[in-house]
Amino acid sequence: MSRSLELFERARRVIPGGVNSPVRAFKSVGGTPPFIRSGKGGMITDVDGKEYVDYVGSWGPLIVGHAHPHVLEAIRLAAEQGCSFGAPTEREIQLAERIIARFPGMEMIRLVNSGTEAVMSAVRLARAATQRDLLVKFEGCYHGHADGLLVAAGSGAATFGVPTSPGITRATAKDTLVLPFNDLEAVEAMFDLRGDEIAAIIVEPVAGNMGCVLPLPGFLEGLRRVCDTHGTLLIFDEVMTGLRVDRGGAQTLYNIRPDLTTLGKVIGGGLPVGAYGGPRHLMEQIAPAGPVYQAGTLSGNPLAVAAGLATLELLDAPGAYATLNTRTRYLVKGLTQVMTVFGIPCVTTCVGSMFGLFFTEAKQVTNFTEASQCHLQRFNQWFHGMLTEGVYLAPSAFEAAFVSLAHDDSLLDYTLTMAERVAERIVAQR
Ligand SMILES: *Cc1c(COP(=O)(O)O)cnc(C)c1O
Q: Where are the domains of the chain?
């Protein structure tokens, strides 16, 4: 028996499903998840000693790769000075200033511990500021696991076919209106009916929790316009895309200014950090400056802030984003070629250093319905094939994949060679 299997069986006795976050359990693809012992650069090693090129990157944060010396040194120095004080520290200001400098229109920011917390708090602020209750979200977009947002929520929830979790009251769910992604007409129709009750529209400007789905031209612009017309706030959930698709997130890439932005993942460099920010007049409504309560014992944690700052420093090196983007495009172009050569129909998408691969005959994937129509069986063959060959992809067809600065040409070329091998096998089994 492999050590991973042994550990998984032991874990299942004391941790629900053996994991501390659902998609890690391989439920949708079958099999046993490898337990990871260590990571270095673009590679991870499991407890049985098998190595993989890693395209999960802890689900997004590890944009400079695993165990980067600069990040490790920052964490070590911070730890030597004490792990947490529950009192303000100077580096929190540095991280706030560095993030704000990247997002036009963001004047203040509050640090929290996860993307979930960031979104939950931004929604509370939007409701307080507008004195309205309703929230519009899009099917297949994931905004963390807060009650009101766990309605038609992509990846984890989609994988398990539980669009709405038990335990969420009808009273909560009824304040969340769910519309199809990329469907501006549906948004306009909803606002014609209930526009003056809607506090905010929340959207992943590039959806990354139903695979990687790009906004159609005009969609984000349309959301901005509808919000302006109806006095509704626009929240860009950039927990995944912020500092990933561009140094200033999707809002910079597409040149749309949201009212509030939520961040996470990359800004913590692999440690737990989330954040939400916006213009001063909104952010000053947050306690203790204003009446909207939001707090956290470990918020702005010294180790997490140090790891985030070190990661941002690396990303500010000249050419970092150009390198990320070039490598990702190279990989995605290569994968598309492999599939074409072997006659496997697919749609590939890519923005900055996040990408997606859908096994479908369709020409494009623009929303959750289309994403769910892709061949899950084929994805599973692909996933397990690549895993066997030492390429670690997310264990679900509804996830984006990530390239880091540590994915050099040799890792990308290795990946493409293995992709060829796996594609050949898929075709042979047909
Ligand atoms: C990951 C993610 C979240 C939740 O962040 P956690 O840190 O897992 O709580 C929220 N929104 C988006 C878009 C995400 O990708």
A: 70-315
Q: How confident is the model at residue 156 (pLDDT cuts 50, 70, 90)?
A: low
pLDDT in tens, 46-96: 999 999 999 999 999 999 999 999 999 999 999 999 999 999 999 999 999
Cα(383)–Cα(370) distance, rounded to whole angstroms?
20
Q: Is the pLDDT of residue 172 over 90?
A: no
Catalytic residue chosen out of the listed positions 52, 183, 265, 321: 265
CATH 3.40.640.10 given to domain 70-315 = yes
pTM of the predicted model, to two decimals?
Answer: 0.96
For 409-421, b/e burial (b = at least 16 CB within 10 A) is eebbeebbebbbe
Lining residues, ligand 1, CB within 6 Å: 114-116, 119, 142-144, 204, 208-209, 237, 239-240, 264, 274
Name the residue of 58, 239, 267 whose CB sits within 8 Å of the most ligand 1 atoms, as the mutation to test its pocket. 239
Classify residue 53 by its DSSP letter.
E
Contact 291, 39 (CB under 8 A): no
Cβ contact 368:140 at 8 Å: yes
pLDDT per residue over 142-152, tens digit each? 999 999 888 76
Closest C-alpha residue for ligand 1 atom 6:
115
197 phi and psi angles, rounded to 5 deg: -105, -5
Give which of 320, 357, 407 is closest to 44, Cα–Cα. Answer: 407
How many angstroms is it from 259 CA to the middle of ligand 1?
Answer: 19
Cα 302 to Cα 72, 270, 288: the distances in Å are 13, 13, 21
Query: For 385-423, how does the pLDDT look when each residue is reduced to its tens digit (9 = 90+)?
Result: 999 999 999 999 999 999 999 999 999 999 999 999 999
